[in-house]
Amino acid sequence: MKRSLPLLAAIFFAALAPAQAADSPEAAARPNIVFILADDLGWGDLHCYGNPRIRTPNLDRLAKSGSLFTQFYVNGSVCSPSRAAFMTGQFPARNRIHHAITGGSDNEDRGVANFLDPAVPTVTALLKQAGYATGHFGKWHLTHNAGPSPSAYGVDDHRAVCTGKDAPTWDLVASELWPKSSELIVDETLRFIRACGDKPFYVNLWTIIPHAALNPTAEQMQPYEKLNFGKTWDRARGPGIPHKDPHAIYFASVTDLDTQLGRLFAALDEMGLTRNTLIIFSSDNGPEILQSSANGYSAGGSAGPFRGRKRSIYEGGVRVPFIVSWPGHVPAGRIEDAAMLSGVDLMPTVCKLAGVSLPAGHALDGEDVSDILFGASRPRTRPLFWEWRFNIIGEPFHRSPMLAVREGDWKLLMNPDRSRIELYDIPRDPTEMANQAANHPAVVASLSDKLLAWQETLPRGPIDPTAGTNDYPWPGKAPAPINRKIRLKE
Asked: 396-488 — its CATH code?
């Protein structure tokens, strides 16, 4: 097993100072860090998060070796915003990343930046400056066609999908490569780790799976063949027409992702790196909706018990899995239900564990939660805010108001004009079904003032006319057209 000099020194001084907790951040050597981010994986899409039908044995073992958190939130309900928050420690709207960054005119129409400004401090840039080797493999989506390469953000080694014009695009979208994407991304990650030698490393392993459209191989589908419809159903007419079940397609893709991550975990063991490697697993937002164009046949993800999916700021759109493992430091087998963590906490927490000072003047929206990772359970010190400026397709039940804030047990959702005010006691009503606004006017007043004050700090930009609505074309009434035109935020 490899042991760096800092690790040996930490062990020596821990022996001289028995009063210092062995699993405290201060006692830990600078860890290697592997941040695994799945794409559109819902809170209920892993066996260890209660899904009885899916097979995810490697991620289940990761949770048993470390801690599983049930109240983890990303800071956007689509990919680019949540990824920007992970990288910067800032709510994505600060940097005009309100929606997925695209390569066409949609960015301008939506008031979205063409790329994350590389002048904004990122976790990769800060760790690189502190002597870490930094890598990124898989989906990037902080630029798209236009914009700089990941190297402009402090990434030493990268092979990325959805990246800037100055970086070669890794074509994993082709139908023959999409089913193999998890294997290929893990291969590149392992190549990078092996090349680091004794140098500490930070690596983003950001998968494509299970973003629709999915196309698993026959071998990947095999464990879920019983879900497909194609058995003899009428003896007089012969076999039925074979159909692939959307859940079988989805489960097969996630299980292959789990299999490939198992190769990564085994390789870290073989290289003697596991005991000094912090592994973080999460997702960028909730599961895809069936109504999204061309994705219905493979949009079989689950938000678990929650209301909302991708493109919604109800729980199911922004509450996702979060598993952390670091043997000897992060408690094993812990399921943490009370502590509330978020994507904006990644930068300050990782920098604390790596011994890296945050730059003066960088306005953080997250907080250092290393004490929570190491076993503490406490309320967070900063509220969480969300904004979604766009129309939402799908069932009205999942269409949230434009704004939300979570502070303590309370979550308030509302539109800027104070319509659709919804207040939920999340620990007691995680499904967001029992609106408590009428029963707690003081809570509504306090949280709405904070939420609207926060929104006033955000960059001005376009807002879809139907944002924050949950209308349905009731029989006898003319259906509302989907209006691509947008109005400016006043």
From this structure: 3.30.1120.10
Helix H or strand E encompassing 403: strand 403-407
Helices marked H in 323-409 — which ranges?
A: 346-354, 370-373
Q: Are 316 and 302 in contact (CB under 8 A)?
A: no
42, 286 Cβ separation under 8 angstroms? yes
Residue pair 206/10 in contact (Cβ under 8 Å)? The answer is no
Structure tokens at 377: 């359970």
Domain ranges for the chain, please list them: 29-383, 396-488
Q: How crowded is residue 478: how many other Cβ atoms within 10 Å of its Cβ?
A: 7
Q: Whole-prediction pTM value?
A: 0.90
Q: Are 422 and 402 in contact (CB under 8 A)?
A: no
Query: DSSP character for 314?
Result: S
In the block, tokens 């023959």 appear at 176
Match domain 29-383 to its CATH number in 1.10.10.410, 3.40.440.10, 3.40.50.720, 3.40.720.10.
3.40.720.10
| pLDDT of 25 above 70 | no
Phi, psi of 65 (to 5 degrees): -80, -15
454/448 Cα distance (integer angstroms): 10
Q: Which two tokens stand for residue 324?
A: 């952390």
| Secondary structure class of 184 (helix, strand, coil) | helix
The H or E element that residue 189 is part of is: helix 181-195
**CB count, 10 Å around CB of 376?**
12
Statement: residue 237 has pLDDT above 60: no
pLDDT digits (tens, 9 = 90+) for 244-289: 888 999 999 999 999 999 999 999 999 999 999 999 999 999 999 9
Question: Following DSSP, what letter does each residue of 239-308 receive, concatenated?
Answer: EPPPB--HHHHHHHHHHHHHHHHHHHHHHHHHTT-GGGEEEEEEESSSPPPTTSTTTGGG-----TT-S-
**Alpha-carbon span 490 to 488, nearest angstrom:** 6
Angstrom distance (rounded) from CA 413 to CA 94: 20
Measured CA to CA in angstroms, residue 231 lies from 219, 227, 234, 466 at distances of 19, 10, 9, 45
